[in-house]
Amino acid sequence: DDVYDPARLQDKWLPVWDELQPFRTSDPGDKRPRKYVLDMFPYPSGDLHMGHAEAYALGDVIARYWRQQGFNVLHPIGWDSFGLPAENAAIKRGLDTREWTDANIAQQRASMRRYAASFDWDRVLHTSDPNYYKWNQWLFLKMYEKGLAYRKASWVNWCPFDQTVLANEQVIDGRCERCDNLVTKKQLTQWYFKITDYADRLLDDLKQLEGSWPSKVIAMQRNWIGRSTGAEVDFEVEGRDEKLTVFTTRPDTLYGVTFMVVAPDSDLAAELVADADDEVKAAFEQYLDTVKRTSEIDRQDASRPKTGVPLGRHAINPLTGERLPIWAADYVLADYGHGAVMAVPAHDQRDLDFARRFDLPVRVVVDTTAPVTGAIPVIETDADGVPVLPDLPSIDPAVTGEALSGDGRIMNSGPLDGLSKSHAIKRVIELLESRGVGRAAKTYRLRDWLISRQRYWGTPIPIIHAQDGSLVPVPEDQLPVELPPTAGLDLTPKGSSPLGAAKEWVETTNPLDGTPALRDADTMDTFVDSSWYFLRFLSPNDDTQAFDPREADKWAPVDQYVGGVTHAILHLLYARFITKVLFDLGYVSFTEPFSALLNQGMVQMNGSAMSKSRGNLVRLSDQLDEHGVDAVRLTMAFAGPPEDDIDWADVSPAGSAKFLARAWRLARDVTSDPSIEWRTGDVALRRQTHRFLAEAPGLVEAFKFNVVVARLMELVNATRKVIDSGAGGGDAAVREATEVIAVALSLFAPYTAEDMWQRLGYQPTVSLVHWRKPDPTLLVEESVTAIVQVDGKVRDRLEVSPKISAEELEALAKASAPVQRALGDRTVVNVIVRAPRLVNIATRG
Ligand code: ANZ
């Protein structure tokens, strides 16, 4: 019992905490200020790993800290339990998806309990629970009503291995995010959420998050949305009624257009080539075939040699009337802008590469050698008022192969001549608008969110297909549309949803007229599930609504979100989008879901990500068995700034365990009792203790957990020194320091801290004990001892700053308890203050 034994502490305290449930957040009459601290919820694919251990250790420091600062803290956990990993694993092992998922959840939950994560276990949810996904379906129907959920046929990213559609975001370097196989294209009718309607707000509201979200994440979101401003220009096409519209960021270069390019895989290309002669058609078809096998990434690679075919058609420049040949080339993407470009080879590198490859003309219309200074450049004119323009730049892009993309002075461009780029853009847009052949425009890289999946393990889409092909929403009172059991279903991916084969499930009746109809057999992307789960935690068992708006008013948005940077784009963007939709629908009163975000780094081994195949996997359970939970948690916090990666080879959980044992032995060696007066204790140690109390809150709030741990280590050493110096464990300052250590240590090492607290004579749980306020008189850097006398007798000694004023010193002296006792009800007749050393009070009584 007198040695530190992490395993014993675990067995001793877990049942006590189970009994106390100290982290349940339920009191409706609670008047304390609130904090909602949320860790990203895990996929239940196997047991917890080192990455979880880091994330939950850090999130827990924050949650535990705010509780000890007197806040009512909500810190829930659940499982993101739908999705491919569970389904694939279940198929591979021949198990039932549900059972496999539930078993993993049970295992992770047991590990989290052992890990002493301070979650509110009464609010657990998992997204594969019909009580949860019912509300996904509700959300879908709300979006459908608003026109924010729609179907369209389009080319989609297709993973031939997983046999499923992938969102752009799930294609990494042309490969499937999950299985790493090459992604191809396939045309399918799919469900989309219209996130593009929210592009401007998603972009503009990022401003609100500056300073409280990592700037890297904000930049990634901004890039992902990718707003470009410029103009749309309409070109007539010879022999065709419809115009060819392009998006351009450089309408100022309109006089420099020498050809047009359309995306080969666009509808437009197919239409344009339809009437062409057989030779052109054949060449086009052959080209299209290769293009379909080229990944989006390759197509966007500017350094790839340019390819393309002429379509045998011409467009007309709306300002000059010039005839421009139309080509199809794969550097133009079908789903960006209008899938077509006006090619200005002199000023755009891709167009120039293409022009040089196919011998098309290059015309310079911006003199990039001319200085551009602020306003409209001075236009030199000759005696007749005709602008005098400089000679062609000596740097001819057709010769050098370098496009002139910079700013400059417009030339060879009729009414735009002499203007700077920005003025020319304004001017040309006015011209286009006045003639009805163009307009100012914005375009975005962001695409609508493809949410349908041809897989089993997800939320069924609550739509019924009537016989006449119309779509009928499932009436709200018939939700949830539950997944059928897997028995008898073939889950192996085939390209259509396995639910389509669940005859009894898929065959239903049209709720409008009772005629036979079919259920939509697709399931939702699991990012739908996680886009609003933070709201479900507020009333997880409410079966009348997705979440209670009153609870949302109280708790949301999330004050502190904690999770991996891997979710910097997708999950966060979708959650931001859905929050704005819920705001527009009147369900929440805020527009951003996560007020502050902390991204923890990764846990690596010898500089690389851990994996079984690399053979560098460190198993969490082994680490916990070997060093104890507290040592592992402390190591995570001590390793460095939370955003940095941790290399497990460079840290020392054994060292952490040693430190914890040292801390714990302090409590064992304290001999005084809780009623002892602090002020009688060793002054130097008291000062260090109070300095810790003054500095630690700021450090925790700035996420400098490693510094807090370092300070705790110093304090433990200083305390031990006082014990060893002969003062022993009875010194009041030793008790004071040890109590402070126990309370603060509970952020990182809850078992050790709880046991210390008990040894110090208190009841569990230390995790709800408030932090003591530092005593300002103990914070002065250097101090001198001031003597306070009452009628010539020394009654107190005060540690004060050498710079203390006479007034302050007098006030302190009069506030001293022993001085007040000595004064009793005597009348003070004279006070002599010789700051900083002496206060002499004379009385009459
Ligand atoms: C003429 C031009 C002249 C252009 C010039 C650029 C420079 P960002 O900034 O990424 O939005 N473009 C438009 N639609 C395209 C598509 N579907 N696929 C490939 N390229 C496309 O780029 C906008 C520019 O990319 C547009 O402005 C257009 O080329 C091209 F000196 O128009 B530009």
UniProtKB/TrEMBL annotation:
Residues 222-432 form the Leucyl-tRNA synthetase editing domain. A motif ('HIGH' region) lies at residues 42-52. A motif ('KMSKS' region) lies at residues 609-613. Residues 13-210, 446-647 form the Aminoacyl-tRNA synthetase class Ia domain. The keyword Membrane does not apply. GO terms for cellular component: cytosol. SUPFAM superfamilies: Anticodon-binding domain of a subclass of class I aminoacyl-tRNA synthetases (SSF47323), Nucleotidylyl transferase (SSF52374), ValRS/IleRS/LeuRS editing domain (SSF50677). Its EC number is 6.1.1.4. GO terms for biological process: leucyl-tRNA aminoacylation. It is an enzyme of class 6 (ligase). Its main location: cytoplasm. It comes from the Bacteria. ATP binds at K612. One of its GO terms (molecular function) is leucine-tRNA ligase activity. It is found in: Cytoplasm. Belongs to the class-I aminoacyl-tRNA synthetase family. This is Leucine--tRNA ligase. It comes from Diaminobutyricimonas aerilata.
